[in-house]
Design goal:
The structure holds two protein chains of two kinds.
Chain A (H helix, E strand, L loop, with lengths): L23 E10 L2 E11 L4 E5 L6 H8 L7 E6 L14 H11 E4 L3 H4 L6 H10 L6 H14 L16 H13 L5 E5 L7 H18 L2 E5 L3 H7 L2 E6 L2 E7 H6 L4 H8 L3
Parallel strand pairs in A: 3-7, 3-8, 5-6, 6-7
Antiparallel strand pairs in A: 1-2, 1-4, 8-9
Chain B lengths: L2 E12 L4 E13 L4 E5 L6 H9 L6 E8 L2 E4 L5 H10 L1 E4 L11 H11 L4 H14 L16 H13 L5 E5 L7 H16 L3 E5 L12 E9 L6 E5 L1
Helix pairs in contact in B: 3-4, 3-5
Classes of the chains: A alpha/beta, B alpha/beta.
C-alpha cells in the first residue's frame, strides 16, 4: 500500500497470524479517464469476514475503486485477484465481459447510494430480488418467491410491502431492497457505496443497524465507501484513506480515526463535528 | 513473560501545527500472566497513550511491545493490522472510560455483540449478557432500552459488561471506575480479582487507585519533565 513520507518510523510486518488468504487483492491498480487518473497505483487486500472502509473526499477515486471491484470497469494496469475456486490466480481484469459479468452475479453484491442504479423502479420489490435468482437459472415461481422473501427478511424489509414497486417506497426501504438483492445469491463480497447517504438520520440509524447485524451474523466480506466517519466507525474493521486517486493512509479503524498519521487524514478527522 | 515493553516511545505529529508533541519516551516494563500493573502519574503524563499504543489504537513511534500470543511472540508495534484485529478478538481487551452507544441498539444487544461476533449463538450470548449486566448492577428494566439515554454511570456499567464478557489474556483498563457508584466499583474490583486469579494480565489507570491497591503487583509512574527545545514534554519512568 502506498505510504506517504509522513508515516511513522515503525513500519508494519506482512500479515502472518491470520489463517485465510485475502478474499480480494488489488495490486498496483491504475484507472484513467482520458487525461484524468482516477485511481493511481492502488493496492489493497480484503480478508474473509472483515469490513474494509474507504474514506476520502469527492473525486478521491473511492467510487471508481468500487466500480473496479464490481467489475463494471477494468483497469489500465494492475491486477484483481479473487480467492474463489476456479478463479484464483486469474487477473479478473483480463477476463472477457461475459466472464466478468458471471463473476459479478455469483460472487459480488452491491448497494449503491442511488437506488435507481440498483433497482428497477417499475418491477415489484420481490421481483427485483427474484431477478437476481433468475440469472442463476432458477425458474420455479414458489422457489423464487420463497428465496426473495428470505432475502428481504434478512435485510429487515417489511414483508407486507414486498410486492410494492420500489418507486413507492421510502429511501430507507429502497436501500433494504437493494441490500436484499445484493445478498440474494449469498455472494462472497458485498460492496456498499455510501449506503446510508441522503437518508434521514433516524432511518440511517436503522439501516446501519441492519448492516451491522447482517455482518455479525453472516460474516460477509464487505467493502464500504462512505464520507461519513461515524458510519465508518460503526461498521469498518479497517480503513484506507484515499486522496487524488492514491491511498494516503491505512490502518485499524480506531487507529486511523484517533491517531491519524497523514496530514490529509488529520485534516479529515479533525474536521469531523 | 506475557508482555515485554522495551523503550516504547510515542510522539504525535501535528501537521497543521508543524510540530511534534511528545507523549512519553523510552518506557520499559514486563508483565506476566496473572499480574496486575497500575499506571500512575499526573494528567497528560501519557498513561492512556501508553495503553493505547499497546492496544494499537495509537501507533508507537519507537520501541517494541512483545506479546506472547497463542501463535508465539509478536511485536504489537509492528504487527499487521489484520493480525492485531485477530488478537483483539481473542486475546486482548480494552476497557474505556466511556461507552460509545450506537443508535437504536439495546444495552443487552450491545453487550452480547462481542460474543455473537465470535460465533456464539444468540440465546447463549444474550444469557451471558444478562448475567454480566446483573453482576454490574444495571437495572433489568434498562436491558432492552437504548444506552444513549442512560446516565453516565449506567452507560459505564454497559461498557464494562461489553468489554468483560469475553475471555482475554491481557486486559487494559482506562479509568473504568470514574463514573461508577460504589457498589458497581466493588463489582468491578471483584471481577478483576477473579480475572487475575484466572491468569489474566491486567494494566490499568484508576481514578480511585485505592480500590485496586491490594491487587497490584507493580506500579509504573509516568511524569512529565519539561524539555526546553521545541516545547515538547518528556515522560520519565520510575
Amino acid at each position: 500500500m502506498t505510504a506517504s513520507s509522513s508515516h511513522p518510523a515503525v513500519s508494519l510486518d506482512a500479515p502472518r497470524l491470520i489463517e485465510s488468504p485475502p478474499l480480494v487483492v488489488l495490486s498496483n491498480v491504475t484507472k484513467r479517464y482520458g487525461r484524468i487518473t482516477a485511481v493511481d497505483d492502488v493496492s489493497l487486500s480484503v480478508y474473509p469476514g472483515e469490513v474494509l472502509g474507504i474514506v476520502g473526499e469527492s473525486g478521491s477515486g473511492k467510487s471508481t475503486v468500487m466500480r473496479l471491484l464490481n467489475l463494471e470497469e477494468t483497469a489500465e494496469s494492475g491486477e484483481y485477484q479473487f480467492d474463489v475456486p476456479d478463479l484464483s490466480g486469474n487477473n479478473l481484469f483480463t477476463l472477457d465481459r461475459y466472464a466478468r459479468r458471471k463473476i459479478g452475479v455469483h460472487h459480488i453484491g452491491i448497494v449503491y447510494q442511488n437506488p435507481h442504479l440498483g433497482l428497477r423502479m417499475n418491477t415489484t420489490s420481490s421481483g427485483n430480488v427474484a431477478e437476481r435468482l433468475l440469472m442463476t437459472g432458477e425458474r420455479g415461481f414458489d422457489a423464487l418467491r420463497d428465496a426473495a422473501r428470505a432475502s428481504l427478511a434478512a435485510s429487515e424489509f417489511p414483508l407486507a410491502r414486498m410486492d410494492d414497486l420500489p418507486r413507492k417506497l421510502s429511501g430507507g426501504m429502497q436501500q433494504r431492497v437493494q441490500l436484499a438483492k445484493a445478498i440474494a445469491l449469498k455472494p462472497r463480497l458485498l460492496l456498499l457505496d455510501e449506503p446510508t447517504t441522503g437518508l434521514d438520520v433516524s432511518i440511517q440509524a436503522t439501516v446501519l443497524d441492519t448492516l451491522k447485524r447482517l455482518q455479525r451474523t453472516t460474516h460477509i466480506t464487505t467493502v464500504l465507501v462512505s464520507h461519513d466517519l461515524g458510519v465508518i466507525r460503526t461498521l469498518a474493521d479497517r480503513v484506507i484513506v484515499m486522496r487524488y486517486g492514491r491511498v494516503v493512509e491505512s490502518g485499524l479503524t480506531d487507529q486511523v480515526l484517533e491517531d491519524p498519521q497523514d496530514a490529509y487524514t488529520q485534516q479529515l478527522v479533525f474536521s469531523k463535528l | 513473560m506475557l508482555l515485554t515493553v522495551h523503550n516504547l516511545s510515542k510522539h504525535f505529529e501535528m501537521h497543521h501545527l508543524d510540530r511534534q508533541i511528545l507523549a512519553f519516551e523510552d518506557v520499559s516494563f514486563t508483565l506476566d500472566s496473572g499480574q496486575f500493573m497500575v499506571i500512575g502519574g499526573s494528567n497528560g503524563a501519557g498513561k492512556s497513550t501508553l495503553m493505547r499504543c499497546i492496544y494499537r489504537t495509537y501507533r508507537a513511534t519507537g520501541g517494541e511491545a512483545w506479546f506472547e500470543s497463542r501463535f508465539g511472540p509478536v511485536d504489537l508495534t509492528r504487527l499487521a493490522d489484520v493480525d492485531v484485529a485477530l488478537l483483539r478478538d481473542y486475546e486482548m481487551g480494552f476497557v474505556t472510560q466511556f461507552l460509545r452507544p450506537r443508535p437504536r441498539v439495546s444495552a443487552l444487544e450491545l453487550v452480547a455483540e462481542p460474543l455473537i461476533a465470535l460465533g456464539e449463538y444468540q440465546d447463549a450470548a444474550e444469557s451471558a449478557a444478562r448475567a454480566i449486566l446483573d453482576e454490574f448492577g444495571l437495572k433489568e428494566a434498562l436491558w432492552q432500552a437504548y444506552p444513549a439515554t442512560f446516565s453516565g454511570g449506567e452507560q459505564q456499567k454497559v461498557n464494562l459488561a461489553r468489554a468483560l464478557i469475553r475471555p482475554v489474556k491481557l486486559l487494559l483498563l482506562d479509568e473504568p471506575t470514574a463514573s461508577l457508584d460504589s457498589a458497581a466499583r466493588q463489582s468491578l474490583v471483584d471481577r478483576l480479582a477473579a480475572l487475575k486469579s484466572q491468569g489474566v494480565a491486567l494494566i490499568g489507570v484508576f481514578h480511585h487507585a485505592n480500590d485496586v491497591e491490594h491487587l497490584a503487583d507493580q506500579h509504573l509512574r509516568l511524569d512529565r519533565v519539561q524539555v526546553y527545545q521545541n516545547g515538547a514534554t518528556h515522560a520519565v519512568v520510575e
